[in-house]
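Notes to self after the Tuesday call (sharing in case useful).
The group wants a holo model before anyone commits to mutagenesis around the pocket. I volunteered. Ligand is zinc ion. Logging inputs and output together so the record is complete.
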Amino acid sequence: MKVLAIESSCDETAAAIVEDGAKILSNQVASQVEIHARYGGIVPEVASRQHILSIIPVIEQTMSQAHAVWKDIDAVAVTSGPGLAGSLIVGVNVAKSIALVRRLPITGVNHLEGHIYANWLMGYEVRFPMLCLIVSGGHSDLVLMKGHGDYALLGRTRDDAAGEAFDKAARILGLGYPGGPAIERAAAKGTPSLPLPRSWLEGTDDFSFSGVKTALLRMVEAGKIATGQDGSLPTVADAAASFQKAVVDVLVTKTIAAAKEHRVDQILLAGGVAANRRLRKQLMDNSPIPVLVPDIGLCTDNAAMIAACGYFRFRAKRVDGLDLDAVPNLSMV
Ligand code: KG4
Ligand code: ZN
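Result:
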């Protein structure tokens, strides 16, 4: 079964064709990063207008890259939420138009569920029950997955999501947007020498990263981080390394504790922050339970993961009608 998927929930216009939920035939992403970088973050109105300009060329490129014609496509999957309303609407309406004209079945995919399914594109032997750590720009969720489409939310962020914290810390340190990759690059040149706090929220599987971000801000405001040539102070690179370590320590420790408590067979990492090398390595090195992670390129937003998730939805007969709508606050559980 060949699924054409469309993803436009945030600032990437993406389309992909995936066979049987596992084999990528084409995976195209038109990034808007440079457009939003000059504003220091995503401007929703600009994002939706850019999706309108990019979506048809991206789909055409996806079809030609896969050497596909329309009769090769068996079904359409599209991210229907969560995300920016104006951005989601573009993808959902284009997907519905294709389904209507080509008389194809359509399914709406939850973006976070899509992130999980990036792991199905890796050829892993996946075993349930598993614990999923989904860390993106808007979420830090710990989800117990007992089967396809069977989720229980164990923990979530109480304030800033992990990716949001990276983005804000990068802004505080003047490292630019998007913050996660900028912090990771700077951290590679520094040592994690700053005493930043960690919020453990013991007794819960929830996360909180606003405290560590505020502590970093206070240090910058108090002139405790070198912005010039003062060799006696920690550098921006040291600050980035310290911040990255603080966030990763909490994510790794709490994820492993929850995995042991729930006696899962595997831990699965997903979402844009899963591209962070320190997070990937620390989780793999410290977990006694096998850890699955997608290739770095499949961690950030893409449509191949939406196609993989869509395939399993079609298999479970979870087909939508042409009344499918964008739901900006769509929840997974
Ligand atoms: O999943 P994603 O691409 O979009 C959302 O669904 O939100 O995640 C984007 C988030 C951003 O906050 C970005 O800074 C973060 O993922 N991110 C990273 C890295 N690459 C992207 N955070 C830490 N380290 C990275 N290498
Ligand atoms: Zn995402």
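Two things stood out.
The first strand starts at residue 2 and ends at 7.
The mean pLDDT is 97.
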